[in-house]
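Is this the right way to post structure tokens for a design question? Let me know if I should format differently. Anyway, here goes:
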């Protein structure tokens, strides 16, 4: 169950980054200086259509990049490990590096 929970929590880092960014930027007015420039004077004269178009373009590009990354990661996950290897996998025990098998000398070791 922990493995499934970890898989579901995969996008949580992405959500945390966006939530932190929203928390930082909401209500922030970088061009408004307290006591010198009022909020009503610091508004830009950009039309709502231009802002909406740039927001839609940003969302579209963001989903394309995020979707391509997700597709690539899922494709890597579904591919069998070692599928590109030239030699077939061998069944049975493997030896650690540097250990060489030695023949048992008759008469030594455990009695039969």
């Amino acid at each position: 169950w922990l493995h499934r929970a970890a898989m579901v929590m995969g996008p949580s880092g992405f959500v945390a980054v966006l939530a932190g960014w929203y928390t930082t930027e909401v209500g922030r007015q970088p061009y408004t200086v307290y006591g010198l420039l009022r909020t009503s004077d610091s508004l830009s004269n950009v039309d709502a259509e231009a802002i909406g178009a740039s927001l839609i373009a940003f969302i579209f590009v963001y989903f394309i990049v995020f979707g391509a990354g997700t597709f690539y990661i899922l494709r890597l996950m579904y591919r069998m490990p070692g599928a590109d290897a030239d030699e077939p996998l061998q069944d049975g025990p493997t030896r650690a590096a540097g250990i060489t098998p030695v023949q048992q000398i008759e008469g030594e070791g455990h009695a039969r």
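Format looks fine. Someone answered above. Worth noting: The chain has a mean pLDDT of 79. The two ends are 49 Å apart (CA to CA).
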